[in-house]
Amino acid sequence: MGIAHDGDLAAKLAVEAGKILLQVRASGLFEGKSLGKAGDQTANQFLVHALREQRPEDGLLSEEEKDNAERLNQSRVWIVDPVDGTREYGEERADWAVHVAIAVDGAPVLGAVALPGCDQVLRSDQPGEVPPAPEVLRMVVSRTRPAREATEVATKLGAELVPMGSAGAKAMAILRGEADIYLHSGGQYEWDSCAPVAVALGWGLHCSRIDGSPLVYNQQDVYMPDLLICRKEHAERVLAEVTALS
């Protein structure tokens, strides 16, 4: 049976892929890097097969699938990351995610981010209320390699650093009331941010490159150097502090 609504499809795929990943991890057959590889491959196979079955006319870009240049000629392109935060998944942490999004003419119009370790899925088309920011702002940064720009801007803002795993977990931490700013300048790929950006935009947050320009997807070069996700009231100050660093 087909799923007519793109939002329902994105959420269903993200949730089911998350269940598959938890089953792979619970099997006890893999650990560490081999667990990450097994999870990536298994979830990717499910997502790719399901999207080709449900949306055969749309383009597809997945981290774990060989890129097909035909997507560049298509208006609607699904962009997925079967496991965002493979290290965290392999370490049996909760700060990893499954990303399913669709870009239309380069714009991240719809997405779902599943957080299987938290038993939650957040959707761009079903926004909730973002909790208010505390007096001392919180900036999510990489657990292992916090970006210089992020740490320096945090110092300027008097913000607390919150180390966290995957990009999806970091972005969703703002919606969940666990953080306020996600500033990243260490380089990512389209699948790392498309779904989180779509969801964040749907929930009314600011999303851009760190120079303030829009995030554009379904490009020939899928590398994306940086991004900023935060409440709209913080965007101007953060962007100004980033500019002052250059």
From TrEMBL:
InterPro entries: CysQ/Inositol_MonoPase, Inositol_monophosphatase-like. GO terms for biological process: 3'-phosphoadenosine 5'-phosphosulfate metabolic process; sulfate assimilation. CDD domains: CysQ. SUPFAM superfamilies: Carbohydrate phosphatase. Mg(2+) binds at E63, D81, D84, D192. Its EC number is 3.1.3.7. Its cofactor is Mg(2+). Keywords: Hydrolase, Magnesium, Metal-binding. It holds the Pfam family Inositol_P. GO terms for molecular function: 3'(2'),5'-bisphosphate nucleotidase activity; metal ion binding. This is 3'(2'), 5'-bisphosphate nucleotidase. It comes from Novosphingobium chloroacetimidivorans. The lineage of its organism: Bacteria, Pseudomonadati, Pseudomonadota, Alphaproteobacteria, Sphingomonadales.
